[in-house]
């Protein structure tokens, strides 16, 4: 690619969820002239979330897609250049970071903010996709409130599943925890909490065949993978807690990561191991995974980037 086709930027933001848009708002107000690439899912996971009731400032709640539209419009108001494209490749070898979009456009940026988020892992059922946001959820903390006093099911066997199952048990009449094997992967203390929760029933060697319902979850059909026996559970909510996958593949080999591929950042900051590259939101947070914490780290990343550029004499 010729030199003329290379675009030079002070600040590039990769990703467009609460973290990316918040970073864009702060970076724009700091006159960093940020360019934001939305990726394949503009707005991130909140675009597949109906009611958001736990984000401060929305006393009546708000629909996830509308909330992300508000974030986007605020970033645009301050001058963020938003591009509806994927970033496909990076090269972080030098002090100026090289990035390529899916169309082959080459960018050289002094500061890069990674806000690529994470994606929930799903079972892959057709009925799961059909009833998404109609009783099917991948976040008990986000959506459990809507199922107060009802009977729900949750799939998973790790610490997250155990934690979310016990959380749901505080709100719901009964919780069915579906475990694919005859044991859980969760830590001993989390397993003890599950076993000592009276309204939480564990179904061992159990897999979900289908989620029943048309406009909402009306039940699930499960099968015991040892006996082959099928049964139906009358639930109105179905939660999937089989993990999240951070969208960080393109940064492997450049950025230090945890074993689970979440980006490592300096505790309490957004710094990565590469000078001038910052990470925020669910791409580096596998503990909280909330919109409000993602937005908070997006703010941190923009402030860190601004200070970095100032110290380097770039702004």
What does this structure look like?
By secondary structure, the chain is an alpha/beta fold. It folds into 2 domains: 3-119 and 244-311, FAD/NAD(P)-binding domain (3-Layer(bba) Sandwich); 122-240, FAD/NAD(P)-binding domain (3-Layer(bba) Sandwich), CATH 3.50.50. Helix content is 24%, strand content 27%. Strands 1, 2, 5, 6, 7, 8 and 19 form a 7-stranded mixed beta sheet that branches. A 5-stranded parallel beta sheet has the order 10-17-11-12-13, with helices on one face. β7 (97-101) and β8 form a beta hairpin. The two termini are 28 Å apart.
Name a few traits of the molecule.
about 325 residues, alpha/beta, FAD/NAD(P)-binding domain, seven-stranded mixed sheet, elongated
Give me a quick take on this structure.
This protein has 315 residues and is α/β, with parallel strands linked by helices. It has helices at 18-29, 64-77, 126-130, 140-143, 159-171, 188-195, 291-311, and strands at 6-14, 35-37, 51-52, 62-63, 81-83, 87-91, 97-101, 106-114, 118-120, 136-137, 151-155, 174-178, 200-203, 206-212, 219-224, 230-233, 237-240, 244-246, 277-279.
């Amino acid at each position: 690619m010729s030199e003329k086709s290379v675009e030079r930027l002070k600040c590039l933001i990769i990703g467009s969820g609460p973290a990316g848009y918040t970073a864009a708002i702060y970076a724009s107000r700091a006159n960093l002239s940020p360019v934001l690439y939305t990726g394949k899912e503009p707005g991130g996971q909140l675009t597949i979330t109906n009611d958001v009731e736990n984000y401060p400032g929305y006393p009546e709640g708000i629909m996830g897609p509308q909330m992300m539209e508000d974030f986007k419009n605020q970033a645009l108001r301050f001058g963020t250049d938003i591009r509806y494209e994927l970033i496909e490749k990076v090269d972080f070898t030098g002090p100026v970071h090289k990035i390529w979009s899916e169309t082959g456009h080459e960018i050289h940026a002094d500061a890069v903010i990674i806000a690529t988020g994470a994606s929930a892992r799903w079972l892959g059922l057709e009925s799961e996709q059909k009833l998404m946001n109609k009783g099917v959820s991948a976040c008990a903390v986000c959506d459990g409130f809507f199922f107060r006093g009802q009977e729900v099911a949750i799939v998973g066997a790790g610490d997250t599943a155990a934690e979310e199952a016990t959380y749901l048990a505080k709100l719901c009449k009964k919780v069915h925890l579906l475990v694919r094997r005859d044991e859980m992967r969760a830590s001993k203390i989390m397993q003890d909490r599950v076993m000592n929760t009276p309204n939480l029933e564990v179904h061992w060697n159990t897999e979900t065949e289908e989620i029943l319902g048309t406009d909402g979850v009306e039940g699930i059909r499960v099968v015991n993978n040892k006996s082959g026996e099928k049964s139906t559970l009358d639930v109105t909510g179905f939660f999937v807690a089989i993990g999240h996958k951070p969208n960080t593949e393109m940064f492997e080999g450049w950025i230090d990561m945890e074993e689970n591929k979440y980006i490592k950042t300096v505790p309490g900051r957004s710094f990565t191991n590469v000078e001038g590259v910052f990470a925020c939101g669910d791409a580096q947070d596998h503990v909280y995974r909330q919109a409000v914490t993602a937005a908070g780290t997006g703010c941190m990343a923009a402030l860190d980037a601004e200070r970095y550029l100032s110290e380097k004499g770039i702004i």
